[in-house]
Amino acid sequence: MADEAPSGLRSLIAVLLAGMSVLVGTPAAADPVTAPEVSTSDEWEIAVFLCTPTTYGCHRRGATAKEKQALRTFLESRPELSGVRFVDRASAYESFRRDFAGNRTLLKAVRAKDLPESFRLRVKKGADRDRMWLAANRRPGVGTVIDQAEIYGDPQATAWPSDISVFLCVKDSLMPACLSDRGGAKGMAATLKEKKAVVKAIEGTPGVVGYFFEDQATAYRNFVESYADN
To answer: Is this model's pTM higher than 0.85 or not?
Structure first.
């Protein structure tokens, strides 16, 4: 059986890529990482992803029906928004497979259950997108909020590459991703097999231009040097 990335990493990749997915009704681009040509950032949605048991910061629990309904009511009352739509897991997976049809590595790595449900928000022209992002991010049951305008719509936001850190499991970690869907490795540090699966997932992720591995000794040395004056 092929090596498989831990569920927490699959969920992280799925959320990031789902947040990058093109709008419903827009033809999928030939290049899976190229956005459709849109003249203004007002066309881009804000994706509000709901908690799942493997979402970091959600304390190993998914969004409840009550939280989901309260979030919908809250979003539909916001004057900054011109539209709110709900995307269930099946629809998200269908869009994901369409938008990344040319990337077999991703299609193999990400499963339907890795994609959380979400609300997609259309923001009125001139409204404060950052304020809306912050308001949505603070609501109970929300795991991650991604503004597509930050990815595609604003040239300043994508002029320079940004770093994403992927932290591996350590022994006795209480991180949800380290406690579920790991078979006999539950409660253990990341295994060699898991590390290889993580590397494979990273290398198959669109937009990644490079990566490096930092062991614990190096991480600790960098930490000490960074906070030497504290």
So the answer is: no
The residues near 112 (Cβ < 8 Å, ≥ 6 apart) are 89, 90, 93
Lowest mean pLDDT among 67-76, 114-123, 163-172: 163-172
| Residue 223 zone, left/alpha/beta (φ > 0; ψ -120 to 50; rest) | alpha
- Return the pLDDT at 39: 38
The CA distance from 72 to 63, in Å, is 12
Counting Cα atoms < 13 Å in the Cβ hemisphere of 173 gives: 18
Can you say how many angstroms the Cα of residue 148 is from the centroid of all Cα atoms in its chain? 12
Closest of 61, 192, 48, 64 to residue 119, by C-alpha: 48
CA-to-CA separations, 221 to 172, 215, 225, in angstroms, rounded: 22, 10, 6
Among all chains, which residue has been given the structure tokens 């059986």?
1
Say if residue 28's pLDDT is above 70.
no
Mean pLDDT of 123-131: 91
φ/ψ (deg, to 5) at 93: -70, -40
> pLDDT exceeding 70 applies to what percent of the chain?
67
